[in-house]
Amino acid sequence: MGIVLFSYFLWLSILLNCGYAAITRASPLSLGQTLSSPGGTYELGFFTPENSQNHYVGIWFKKITPRVVVWVANREKPITNYVANLTISGNGSLILLDSRENVVWSTRKLSTSNKCHAKLLDTGNLVMIDDVSGSLLWESFENLGDTMLPLSSLMYNLATGEKRVLTSWKSHSDPSSGDFVLQMTPQVPAEIVTMKGTKLYKRSGPWAKTRFTGVPQMDDTYASPFSLSQDVGNGTGYFSYLQRNSELIRVIITSEGYLKTFRYNGTGWVLDFVTPKNSCDLYGACGPFGLCVASNPTKCKCIKGFVPKHKEDWKRGNMTSGCVRRTELSCQTQGKSADVFYRLANVKPPDLYKYASFLDADQCHQGCLSNCSCTAFAYITGIGCLLWNQELIDTVRYSTGGEFLSIRLASSELVGSRRTKIIAGTISLSVFVILAFASYKYWRYRAKQNDSWKNDLDAQEFSGLTFFEMNIIQAATNNFNFSNKLGQGGFGPVYKGKLSDSKEIAVKRLSSSSGQGTEEFMNEIKLISKLQHRNLVRLLGCCIDGEEKLLVYEFLVNKSLDTFLFDSTLKLQIDWPKRFNIIQGVARGLLYLHRDSCLRVIHRDLKVSNILLDENMNPKISDFGLARMFQGNQHQDNTHKVVGTLGYMSPEYAWTGMFSEKSDVYAFGVLQLEIISGKKISSFNCGMEGKTLLEYAWESWLENDGVDLLDQDITSSCSPVEVARCVQIGLLCIQQQAIDRPNIAQVVSMITTASDLPRPKKPVFALRIQDEERVVSVSESVNHITQTAIYGR
C-alpha cells in the first residue's frame, strides 16, 4: 500500500509541475499547472500579482525572473479561490471555469466541431486550432493586453469597426484595464497615439516610410524595428514590432502612461526607448499655434507671427490657451501684399494634417498658397505633401532631427522696405567683421589656455591617464549620436562609446552652460586619477579641444542606480540582498575617500544617480566634479558657493556653507533610506500631511523598527533584522548636528557587524518644493537658500 501511495503522489507532483503540450477537453489546465511553448521561451499558467490574492491566467517569459507577464486572459474578472480550470467547451471555445463551474472568461469563438485544442507558440501567441479542418479559430495576438511582442500588431479596420490596441494595467498589482490606451490612427499617414480616457495624451507624429516624424532619434542612421502598412482603399492598417535577432523584446504601455521598449540581454531587461520624456511630449502642451521647445528645461513660445492669446495666463505659466495671429492674412497669391511662408526647422509636424498628392515641394507650396484656409505645409521624405487647414496644435521643436514646416504669414511679418534691408545688410556686415575678428582673437586665447592645461596635466605624470584626441572620441560615440546617449547629468550628457580596440567607454561631455568650468574639470581629473578602489568609477582619460571638455570613464553596463531603483519593473532585479550589497559597497567607497586613500576627499554630491552599477550590480561612486581634498589634519571647511543636490545636503552645509566628512555621511544616510524604500527623496510624500521620506522613516522606526519602510515589491527577499538595522543607521547618518553623526568608519562597522547601535535623535525634516532633482549653485546669501530651496519643520 505504501508503494502504491508513493507512486500516486509522485505522479500527481509531476502532473502539477510539468508543461503541457496542449489544452483539450480531456486535459484542462488547472491551478499549479503550466503550458510551455515548444522551445521553452514562454509559459502559460495561473499567476497572482504581488500584494494581491486574485488569480489570473497569463503568459510570461518562462526562464526569466522576476516574472514578466505579457498577456492576461481574465484581466477584468479574477479567480478569487484556489480552484479553476482552463479548458475547451462543448461548442469549441476556450473557457475559464471557477470552482462552481461558472464561465469566468471565454474566447467566444465557436468551432465547426467540438474537436479542437489550444497550444502556446514560441512567439508567445496562444492559439486555438480546429482538429478537423486545421484552421486557426482564435489567437491571443488578436486580443492584446498591455504588451506587444514581435509578430503581434496594432490594427484598425474601418469597414468592420475592428480595432486592436494596447491597454495599460490599472496598477502594478491589478491587470484590469487602466487609463491609457495605445492605438493606431486611420489618418493618412497613420500615427501611434496614447489616449488617456477619451483625451489624446501623446502622439508619435505621422509615419514616414521607416520612422515616426515626431521621434527625433529616428534619423537616417536609425535601424527601425517597426513596420507600418496601410491599405487606404480597404480602410485597414497594421503596426508591428519586428525581431531582428534572437534577443527577447517587448513593448509595453504602463499604468502611468509611459510607452517603453525593452530587450533582454541575457542578464536583465534593457530599456531602449521611453516616451513621454518631457512636457513637450504631452499633447498640445503649448496650445494652438504654440511651439514647445524641447530644451532643458522645456519651454513654450509662440510661432513667429503669433502672440499669446491670453498674456496674463502665459505670465502665470499656463500656456494651454496658445497663440493668435499678430497680422491677419490677405489671402492674395501675388503682389506686394501676397501671403508668405516662414520655414521652421527641426519640428514635429502638428496634428490635424491632410495628405495631398502633389508631386514635389513646389507643387505642395503652390497648393497651400492657392487655398486661403491653408495655414501651413510640409513636404516630408517618405510621405510627400502634408497640408494644415486648421489651428497648428502639438508643434514641437527639437535641437536636432524633426522636419521643416512652412507656416503661412502676412507679408508684413517677413518683408521690410528696400531701404530697411540695405541698412540692415550694412549693419550686419559690419557686425560680422567685428565678431569674426573678436572670435579669432578669443580662439587663439583659448587655444593657448588649452595647451597650458594639457601641459599642467602632463607634468603631473598621472599613471594610466590617457589624453584622447577629439576625432577618437567622435568616432567612438558616432559623433555623439543620440542613440549612444546614456543619460543627462547635472553638468552635461553622458555617451556610450567604443574605441577601435572594441573597448567600451562612457564619455561625459561637459556643457558650456552646466556651471562646471575649468576649475571643476581640472579638479575631477586631479582627484579621480589618483583614486583607485573597486567601489569608485575608474577615469581612463580626458580630452580638451577648444571649448570642448570631455572625461572618459570605464563603461558600466547597468548604468546608474536610479535606473533600477525608481523603475516599477527594473527595481525587481535588485532584491534586498543586492540592495544590502550596494549599501555596503557605497560605504566602503566613502571609507576609502575619507580615510584610506592617499588623499582625504569629500565628495559633496553623493546621490542615487551618481552611483553606477557594473555587470554584477556592484556599486561604484562617480562624478567628482564637486569634490574637495583636505590637507593634513584639516577636518572641515566652508564655501561661499553652496553646490550640490537639494535633499542630500546636510543642514550645516545648506545653511552656512560648512562641509566636512559628516556632510557626505548625511548624504549617505539619505541615499541609504532611498535604497531601502525605493522612493525618491525629492518626490516622496505620504498622507494628508505630505510627510517627507525622512519623516516617514523616523516614524516607521519608532513604530516597528523601520521594517515596513522597505520597498513592498521585494519584501519576500528581505532579512527584517538587516532592514531594521540599516534604517537605524540611516537615521543616525541624518542627525541634525554633525557631531551626532557617526564617521564613515563607524558606519561601515555598524553595517558589517552586529554591535549595539546608539539611539538616533529626531532629525530635521527638509521639504523639497520641486519634484525634479536639481543641482544647485547658490551665492553666499543664507536667507536666499532657505527661502527658495529648503524649509525646516
From TrEMBL:
Signal peptide residues on this chain, from the entry's feature table: 1-21
Record EC number: 2.7.11.1
Record-annotated Protein kinase domain positions: 480-765
Residues covered by the Apple domain: 331-409
GO molecular function (one): carbohydrate binding
Subcellular location: Cell membrane
Top EC class, one word: transferase
Family the entry assigns: Belongs to the protein kinase superfamily. Ser/Thr protein kinase family.
Name assigned to this protein: Receptor-like serine/threonine-protein kinase
Organism from which the protein derives: Microthlaspi erraticum
Source species taxonomy: Eukaryota, Viridiplantae, Streptophyta, Embryophyta, Tracheophyta
